[in-house]
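Design request, tokens follow.
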């Protein structure tokens, strides 16, 4: 099952994302991390098992908030992209910031996409559906022959 990893310190945003996934009937398992430090600790543990890491990397997508306590999204993104074992994990910066500087910086750090958090649940449902379709349903063949991470 595809996993949507949400790294965000705002419990309301997590609730909205979880609700949008359920309402859109997208087969995502949502896992949440309260800050970048917690997320990076989980990735560190995962790296000890090569097969598990490979499966994880091919079945997940990360929604990464930029502004969090302890370790922010920029630091997470930088560390993940510097680690060759983690670099293929698709990361979407999911932020309230519409700053051109934040957007440009996120792409320079290796984000696969940048999405501004919408104001309403219907828009969020559409985003969740499009993210799933783009990353996991290539030509109607989820996890099929095409390498979905070569985008």
């Amino acid at each position: 099952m595809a996993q949507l990893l949400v790294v965000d310190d705002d419990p309301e945003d997590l609730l909205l994302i979880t609700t949008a996934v359920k309402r859109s009937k997208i087969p995502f398992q949502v896992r949440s991390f309260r800050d970048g430090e917690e997320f990076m600790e989980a990735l560190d543990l995962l790296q000890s098992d090569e097969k598990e890491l490979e499966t994880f990397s091919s079945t997940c997508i990360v929604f990464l908030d930029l502004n969090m306590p302890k370790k922010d999204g920029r630091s997470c993104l930088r560390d993940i992209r510097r680690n060759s074992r983690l670099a293929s994990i698709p990361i979407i910066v999911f932020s309230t910031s519409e700053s051109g500087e934040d957007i440009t910086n996120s792409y320079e750090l290796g984000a696969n996409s940048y999405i501004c958090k919408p104001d309403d649940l219907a828009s969020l449902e559409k985003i969740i559906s499009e993210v799933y379709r783009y990353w996991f349903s290539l030509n109607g063949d989820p996890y099929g022959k095409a390498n979905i991470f070569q985008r």
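Comment from the thread starter after seeing the answer: thanks! The beta strands are 2-7, 28-33, 60-64, 91-95, 113-116.
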